[in-house]
Model the fold of this input.
Amino acid sequence: MAEFFHNITLQDILLGVFGILFGIPLLVFGVMLLLYQAGLIKPPAKKPEPTLSITTSDNSSSTVFKQFWIQGLLLVLLSLMLVFGLRGLSSAITNPNGMVLIPAGTFIMGSSDEEIMWAAETFYSESLDFYRDETPAHPVTLDAFFIDKTEVTVGNFKDYMAETGQDPPRYFDSEKFKATSQPVVGVTWKQADQFCAWAGKRLPTEAEWEKAARGTDTRMYPWGKKPEEKLGNFRGKSDGFRYVAPVGSFPESKSPYGVLDLAGNVWEWTDSWYGPHPGNTVKSDLYGERFKVMKGGSWFSNLDLARITVRGKALPNQKMNYIGFRCARSASVKTGALN
Done:
């Protein structure tokens, strides 16, 4: 249950409790006032007091009119308080902390022939064969889902090992890869899958990962169509990092949905086997249930491999210092299912 409590922020809880405890009574009070002013309900009978003057009827009518609108405005404000209170409490219960909601809908997955030609010319590739598995560009419709805003860190994996007794992955004690804020590397596909299951989540599919990075347009990178060396941790030191960078180091590179670190830093495991896209006619002996798809490139990759549509692949048991992961979960899954 530890991960469940991590998913609820104090701000959301306080907002929800305040809105509900104060919003409901005040809302009822406001409704009663409006009904009274409209003459639909009457207060308890009381002994009438003598009328002092009949010359103030116009002023009394004006006063009642002003009170009516003031109370109406009060009712609107109290309704908003209740709505935001419920929203805050609902957010605390249903929105996992550290995850981003990707809405349901259709996006364009893969690359067109023109796009792989652009990549070959931009990065001086000698052949288009490397890019053929990205084609064709095709529409994919997905249900809403959540995805981790950043990659799973060494610190996250330490919590997992402490609770489950699992062995550390390769490179866990390496000085280059052991900082708690760095993405955990050296994990096999199975280790990544088991971590996500422990957290009440799962690995994202290739299509989910691509939509989280791309949005609904046909951008090449999470930030747009132009390659930018300073917007991610890629091969070399121009970005300020020789090996993996702490997660969230490049906030300017966020995707249209606000997801970070989707280009560079570490390749990320997905749940998908490496097979042809629908409509792809290229023959490959590598297709099938042998390799798992990885996405995003790494600190050891150039900007070509960091393009959203590039399809990295690795054997599920590979343990490399440039492979990590992040988790996802379907929006229909209740947060209470988290560990």
